[in-house]
Design a protein that fits this description.
Distance between the termini: 69 Å
Number of strands: 10
Radius of gyration: 24 Å
């Protein structure tokens, strides 16, 4: 009888454990498919975080026939207005370079600080999934693209794909690069990204954040651009140096290539280039390429 009682008790415990796991999975599934929502308190925090950008203007868009995104846009507008002027373009998101999962911020040449604050407050204060911003200011008006809600499966798939296919520099890696390049503070450089590949803005932005003149970075003077380039220039990362560059710039180029290689990135060069610019398709170029800068770094596709 004791053995029968023991078996029965174990079966009861197993049943309870399975029920608890099933309930937890149900909760997770409900959270994954539930509408995105920002509470009045979260809206207040977003509004406060953007206080220094009073008067800025944004377009806000979503895909057609996406009621969940349309509802979120109403809440985002409540957080932004009246300090930020919002033009509601719900249902008018089309032609994005890659599918928008979560929220994507597109910024103007001079609007990067505003865009970075939007990304930070939407994520930290609003609990929303927001893509890292592109280093390229390629729109005339800041745009908030409210894409599809990234459900749990999409997030896990994205994590796996990122580990396999996406080059990234985390904060520790960027700090190591800064420590190696800060001695060349003030160095002038062009950063050029190959346009058609949606992976490139991620690593280009990570490199930019490490080397440009923002607080805590290496303090280089970076001119940013993107566009199409000829076949043969579309793979890996290439560091180029003008043949007539001064010795300090040549050493800076070597240190840049070495610092990036030490973070397991595939980098070619430094190698000389006579006209200092890659063979770009001029009509596709966004931003500027400064021909006087002694160094150019070209961010191409993963090999």
């Amino acid at each position: 009888m004791g053995a029968l009682t023991s078996i029965t008790n174990k079966e009861v415990e197993d049943t309870r454990e399975r029920a608890a796991k099933a309930e937890l999975e149900t909760i997770r599934l409900r959270a994954a498919i539930a509408d995105r929502d920002i509470t009045p308190d979260q809206q207040r925090k977003i509004r406060e975080a953007l206080a220094k950008f009073i008067g800025e203007f944004v377009y806000i868009r979503s895909y057609p026939n996406d009621p969940e995104a349309s509802r979120l846009i109403v809440e985002l507008k409540a957080a932004l207005e009246p300090n930020i002027h919002v033009e509601d373009r719900t249902g008018e998101l089309a032609g994005a370079s890659s599918p928008v999962l979560g929220i994507r911020i597109q910024h103007t040449d001079k609007g990067r600080a505003f865009a970075e604050t939007l990304v930070k407050t939407f994520h930290n204060d609003g609990g929303l999934a927001v893509e890292p911003i592109s280093p390229y200011g390629d729109v005339n008006v800041t745009e908030i693209l409210v894409g599809l809600k990234p459900v749990a499966l999409a997030r896990e798939t994205a994590k796996i794909a990122e580990r396999i296919e996406t080059r990234r520099l985390d904060s520790e890696a960027r700090n190591r690069i800064v420590s190696k390049l800060r001695g060349f503070s003030g160095q002038k450089i062009n950063l050029f990204g190959y346009d058609p590949d949606p992976e490139i803005p991620f690593i280009a932005n990570d490199v930019l954040v490490a080397i440009d003149d923002r607080p805590g970075a290496a303090g280089w003077a970076v001119t940013v651009s993107s566009g199409n380039i000829a076949v043969g220039w579309t793979r890996d990362i290439e560091v180029l140096i003008k043949p007539d560059a001064d010795e300090s710039s040549k050493e800076a180029a070597k240190s840049l290539a070495s610092a990036l290689r030490s973070e397991h990135l595939t980098v070619r060069g430094p190698r000389p280039i006579s006209d200092h610019t890659p063979p770009v398709v001029k009509e596709t170029v966004r931003g500027q390429i400064n021909p006087n800068n002694p160094i150019t770094i070209v961010i191409g596709r993963i090999r």
